[in-house]
From TrEMBL:
Full protein name: ADP-L-glycero-D-manno-heptose-6-epimerase
Organism: Sphingobacterium spiritivorum
Keyword Calcium attached: no
Presence of keyword Repeat: no
Source organism superkingdom: Bacteria
InterPro entries: Epimerase_deHydtase, NAD(P)-bd_dom_sf, NAD(P)-dependent_oxidoreduct
EC number: 5.1.3.20
Any one Gene Ontology molecular-function term assigned to this protein's record: ADP-glyceromanno-heptose 6-epimerase activity
Gene behind the chain: hldD
Ranges for domain NAD-dependent epimerase/dehydratase: 2-219
């Protein structure tokens, strides 16, 4: 039996949809307050279990009869006020999953992130071999994903059968207006400023498909794979979205210096309105970073062809515009 953690999330729900479309039954965990997506509500192939990722005993019950686990549950935030909770969810939660997989001899596909990778010393695209190095400028999100990945590697040493995937920025039509979906909302509102960094992006459908492929490739174990469709500058990505949405392309470059002023100003304002700042030091640094990511290893291992980015962007734009009409 298959277990999917974070079943109501963007990636988790996409993965479940692909599995049940193939007639595969799954057990899916969610938080008690989470809303099940409409396209999953009526399926008799899904057994929903309320089990917080930090509740070991609830997870233990969900693991009954489980032989394969997709660990999608995680917290993503660049807000300083969320740091402690995010570390707890991403690290302790993964520790629980790893320990239970060991206990039940279950095969694990763990969703990590490019944020858990190192940087290339040769100015070439980052690969799975580039080692993560601690830096005081590293975001808490990056630290949490790196340390959660360490839990999986610890499990591998103890005999865990596991594969790790490191997706770049995941996009897709079901993201809505949150997370990566917020980019389309900003462009729709007439975004004039663009960060000067670069980004790697990947379709959520590709990530889910590759997770299933890797789960079934039992000869692959103790490996990690970057999942990335294309590398491009933030400006290039925003321009392509703007053209599709028939909106003006952003023309003002938000340099690291300008972003540094912006996050400080946002932090100052947040002291008075008690709302999370619109931009933080970590998010400013992330948007200014200039990194590229290699997908050579996953292609060689699976012969998989990623969906062209333009197709994904067209689908997201069409879905977004339909919902906002």
């Amino acid at each position: 039996m298959i277990l999917v953690t974070g079943g109501t999330g963007f990636l988790g729900s996409t993965l479940i949809k692909q599995l049940i479309d193939e007639g595969v039954a799954v057990v899916a965990t969610k938080r008690s307050e989470s809303v099940i997506p409409e396209y999953l509500k009526s399926s008799s192939l899904i057994q929903w279990v309320d089990a917080d990722i930090n509740d070991y005993f609830a997870l233990e019950e969900a693991f009954e009869g489980i032989s394969h686990v997709f660990h999608c549950a995680a917290m993503i935030s660049y807000q300083p006020r969320d740091a402690s909770q995010m570390m707890k969810v991403n690290i302790e939660g993964t520790r629980h999953i790893v320990n239970l997989c060991l206990q039940h001899s279950a095969r694990l596909v763990h969703v990590s992130s490019i944020a858990a990778l190192g940087t290339s010393k040769s100015r070439q695209p980052v690969t799975e071999q580039d080692k993560w190095e601690y830096d005081s400028k590293i975001s808490k999100y990056s630290l949490s994903k790196y340390e959660s990945e360490l839990e999986v590697w610890r499990g591998v040493v103890e005999g865990l059968d596991a594969v790790i995937v490191n997706p770049s920025v995941i996009i897709g039509a079901t993201a809505g207006k949150k997370g990566s979906g917020a980019i389309f909302s900003l462009v729709d509102k007439g975004l004039k400023v663009y960060p000067t960094g670069s980004v790697g992006v990947v379709d959520v459908e590709d990530v889910a498909k590759l997770m299933i492929i890797l789960m079934n490739k039992t000869e692959i174990s103790g490996e990690r794979f970057i999942l990335n469709t294309e590398n491009l500058t933030n400006k290039a990505l925003l321009d392509r979205i703007s053209i599709l949405m028939q909106k003006p392309e952003p023309t003002i470059a938000a340099s690291p210096t300008l972003l540094s002023i912006a996050w400080r100003a946002a932090k100052f304002v947040s002291y008075f309105n008690n709302k999370p700042p619109a931009i933080t030091k970590d998010s400013a640094r992330a948007s200014s970073a200039k990194l590229a990511y290699s997908n050579k290893k996953i292609i060689e291992a699976t012969q998989y062809s990623f969906r062209p980015l333009d197709e994904t962007l067209k689908e997201i734009t069409a879905t977004y515009q339909t919902k906002t009409e």
